[in-house]
TrEMBL record, chains A, B:
Pfam families hit by this protein: TetR_N
Keyword list, A-Z: DNA-binding, Transcription, Transcription regulation
InterPro entries per UniProt: Homeodomain-like_sf, HTH-type_TetR-like_transc_reg, HTH_TetR, Tet_transcr_reg_TetR-rel_C_sf
Residue ranges of the annotated DNA-binding region, renumbered to this chain: 34-53
Protein name: TetR family transcriptional regulator
Taxonomic lineage from the root: Bacteria, Bacillati, Actinomycetota, Actinomycetes, Micrococcales
A GO MF term: DNA-binding transcription factor activity
Limits of the HTH tetR-type domain: 11-71
Amino acid sequence: MATRGAYAKGVVKREEILEAALAVVAEHGYRKASVREIADAAGLSPAGLLHYFGTKEELFVAILRARDDRDEQEYAGEDVVQAFLAVTRHNASVPGLVQLYAQLAAEAGDPEHPAHAYFRERTARVEDFTRAQVAADQQAGLLRDDLDPAWIVRTMHALADGLQSAWMLDPSLDMAGEIEQFLVLLRPSH
Amino acid sequence: MATRGAYAKGVVKREEILEAALAVVAEHGYRKASVREIADAAGLSPAGLLHYFGTKEELFVAILRARDDRDEQEYAGEDVVQAFLAVTRHNASVPGLVQLYAQLAAEAGDPEHPAHAYFRERTARVEDFTRAQVAADQQAGLLRDDLDPAWIVRTMHALADGLQSAWMLDPSLDMAGEIEQFLVLLRPSH
């Protein structure tokens, strides 16, 4: 029972650290968010912080997982296209997380990178879920039914990722507005 | 004249180094392409290599510029959409360069990063050139004329960047095939 209590405490502490880390990355960006700064925000030493996560890369993957969980809870039950636009709009308010995601995604192309498995699993999970909803929207006459739902989902995903890169270079770009124009092409013609 | 000769020699040497660096990055990838490895391939010491480029980041930006020059020469005069598809297909054969581009693009979101100016200039140059050609294709009836050519170009650019990220995680993805399906949506209806 003592072990279980210690485990539960560890889980709570881990959640607290992730909250602090999310705030530091969202505010200062990925490149400038050091292990020391995140440790300070969580009231720990750098070594104490890494005790919970192993390595800096694993800490950053845990931050992205925490953000996925929050986004998925926030928009659960909403129409998939509207939720996608809402997440895109929200992202424009957390440039540090967008930068962290883009940076780790680029590094994770290497199968040996610690974030590789996370990104593959994330793609499969998000695309499976979204594809089923897109197919339902097609059956309901909300989206053109002559397009492969898997292609629609991959394209929306790639478009959002690519627009994030463009937006990081030029923050005046309206990511959600760009995607809305793409969605017009997916509407059934009358 | 001696100075001019030395300058011309420097330019030639710089070209040779870029050729060697392109080959090393294309073969081994960005993360694994060390300054030492590129120096070895160019027959220089690491210090000798950096004499020509200043820093590792500036060397990598020079590699991307050399690749842009080559792609632009290779497809000069071709239809813009066909050239875009041809570059996309070619990219699937040089994963190291795709990785270098994606990694530097993600880092370059930070205005203080040495590649920031390169990526902003590249986006402006490529999109200005492509937009004029897309507008001409619209006038010629090859593309729908009810879509903003600037939006078409930004979307093709973002889609290509996003598909590169997806392809790095899953090399079975057919990047050019995905884009061809998007292009179908841009065709005028008859």
